């Protein structure tokens, strides 16, 4: 079985952090000049990428299977090789026992080790849920192409419980005016929900439930995840395009968060919102795969960010513009004229006074609410 041993991080001669003995299980599919790394979400395995692996490569047979020829002669896979893997803490990969061994930054470094192990100097990076968080961290570290989708989590003790929670949270549960309810569609004598439930229970039983250490660690990684402003700037200036794909009916990660991420990455990002839930990659497979192929094609022809994005630049507002101007002038104040310096000091005072007035008003409003007499109606007795 193919494994990648994660590169160890040395702090000093006596200390080794995070990665001692960690092995990542992976599989590759298809062949071609383009490469894509697929990073799955919390408690998921590489097998969760099945619809995208088939759509991108034209095959669902791993390259390490004996006697399998994975070259895509049909043209549907666009001549691509993809790698899907189990994150640390899940599937056949190692399960560190300490929460500190799980952060999205550490897991991004796992991905880098895997890319180095494969000998891939460049790759499209596609992440789902927690995998999208990892992909953002990876994009801030390296010149890679990134896709972001969502966030998901669950707490279940048996395959049956886990399957039920997955179905309740991964797919859209609302009626759609122009779309049939995905889970209520009939497949023979059963509904799609019944069929998926049996498939989920079988798949989870075969791979095994996630261990407590793995689940706690991955949840810890999600909880601590944050993309800083410098990281956002590095992604925007790295020279690659981004697609943020999200289901409109996602009950775990609302679509407003995806739109906010896309806007932060303007102008290199495109927002793709689809009629689906959290697992939109399965619910709207054709549309997601089409969006992925469009992203890969646009990257190949080196399309400019302004031609790629479907977002508009947001007006930061007066106060944000003033703060930005003050910061920029402060950085270069040695070259500023005395009059300009005085004006900027004056604006700082105004901003401070405005903030102070807002604070006083808020405290006064709360105080009045406490001491305000309460009207009592006539007694009923």
List keywords for this structure.
single chain; 381 residues; alpha/beta; eight-stranded mixed β-sheet; two-stranded antiparallel ribbon; 13 helices; 12 strands; 44% helix; globular; AB_hydrolase_fold; AB hydrolase-1 domain-containing protein; AB_hydrolase
Strand count, sense and barrel status of the largest sheet are: 8 strands, mixed
Q: What is the assembly state of the chains in this entry?
A: single chain
- Look at the helices and sheets and give the structural class: alpha/beta
Low-pLDDT segments, ≥5 res: 10-16, 66-77, 144-155
Please count the helical segments. Answer: 13
What would the average pLDDT be, to the nearest integer?
80
Strand order within the widest beta sheet: 1-4-6-5-7-8-11-12
- N- to C-terminal separation? 79 Å
């Amino acid at each position: 079985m193919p494994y990648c041993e994660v590169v160890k991080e040395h702090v000093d001669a006596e200390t080794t952090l995070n990665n001692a003995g960690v092995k990542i299980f992976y599989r590759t599919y298809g062949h071609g000049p383009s490469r894509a790394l697929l990073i799955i979400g919390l408690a998921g395995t590489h097998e969760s990428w099945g619809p995208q692996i088939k759509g991108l490569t034209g095959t669902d047979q791993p390259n390490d299977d004996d006697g399998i020829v994975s070259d895509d002669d049909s043209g549907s896979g666009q001549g691509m090789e993809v790698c899907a893997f189990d994150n640390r803490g899940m599937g056949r990969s190692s399960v560190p026992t300490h929460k500190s061994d799980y952060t999205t930054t550490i897991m991004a470094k796992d991905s880098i080790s895997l890319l180095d192990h494969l000998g891939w100097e460049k790759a499209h990076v596609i992440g789902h849920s927690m995998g999208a968080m990892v992909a953002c961290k990876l994009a801030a570290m390296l010149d890679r192409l990134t896709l972001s989708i969502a966030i998901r989590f669950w707490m279940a003790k048996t395959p049956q419980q886990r399957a039920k929670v997955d179905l309740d949270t991964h797919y859209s549960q609302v009626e759609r005016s122009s779309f049939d309810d995905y889970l209520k569609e009939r497949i023979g004598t059963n509904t799609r929900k019944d069929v998926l439930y049996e498939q989920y229970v079988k798949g989870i039983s075969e791979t095994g439930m996630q261990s407590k250490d793995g689940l706690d660690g991955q949840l810890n990684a999600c909880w601590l995840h944050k993309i800083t402003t410098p990281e956002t700037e590095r992604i925007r200036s790295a020279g690659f395009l981004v697609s943020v794909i999200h289901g409109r009916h996602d009950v775990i990660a609302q679509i407003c968060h995806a739109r906010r991420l896309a806007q932060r990455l303007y102008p290199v990002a495109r927002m793709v919102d689809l009629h689906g839930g959290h697992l939109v990659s399965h619910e709207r497979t054709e549309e997601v795969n089409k969006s992925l192929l469009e992203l890969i094609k646009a990257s190949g022809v080196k399309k400019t960010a302004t031609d790629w994005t479907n977002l508009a630049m947001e007006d930061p507002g007066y106060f944000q513009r003033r703060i930005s101007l003050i910061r920029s002038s402060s950085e270069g104040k040695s070259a500023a004229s005395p009059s300009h310096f005085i004006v900027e000091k004056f604006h700082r005072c105004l901003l401070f006074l405005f903030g102070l007035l807002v604070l006083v008003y808020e405290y006064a409003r709360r105080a009045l609410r406490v001491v305000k007499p309460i009207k009592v109606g006539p007694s009923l007795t």
